[in-house]
Amino acid sequence: MDGLSWVMVIVIGGVAGLIASRIMKRNHSLTGNVILGILGAVSMNVVLKSALGLQFGGIVGQFIVAVIGASAIIALFQALRKNRA
Predict the structure, then answer these.
(1) pLDDT (tens digit, 9 = 90+) per residue, 14-63?
(2) In whole angstroms, what is the distance from residue 69 CA to residue 83 CA?
(3) What ranges do the domains of the chain cover?
(4) Fewer C-beta neighbours within 10 Å, C or N terminus of the chain?
């Protein structure tokens, strides 16, 4: 997320969260989509940068990372809920 303003991070995160919820077939509120997208973008950036040494710049790169990260977070929450039931 280097070089992007917080407003752009929120916009990218919101759209990425919306797309990730559609990919994973889960409906969340707009606020939930923004939170999932931002968490996904941040967590996936940390994983890619620290574990693999990769860093994606620009809006398109961050968008792809955010969608993948948000999808991973949705899958994680689904797995945790499934184990509780």
Answers:
(1) 888 889 888 888 877 778 777 887 888 788 878 887 888 777 777 888 88
(2) 21
(3) 6-84
(4) C
Q: What is the pTM of this model?
A: 0.78
Residues contacting 66, CB < 8 A, separation 6+:
12, 13, 16, 17, 20, 37, 38, 40, 41, 44
Distance of alpha carbon 44 from alpha carbon 51, whole angstroms: 10
Distance (Å, whole) CA 66 – CA 15: 9
Structure tokens at 26: 């889960």
Report the phi/psi class of residue 82: left, alpha or beta, with left for phi > 0 and alpha for psi in -120 to 50: alpha
Q: How far is CA 8 from CA 21, 32, 33, 53, 77, in A?
A: 20, 17, 15, 24, 26
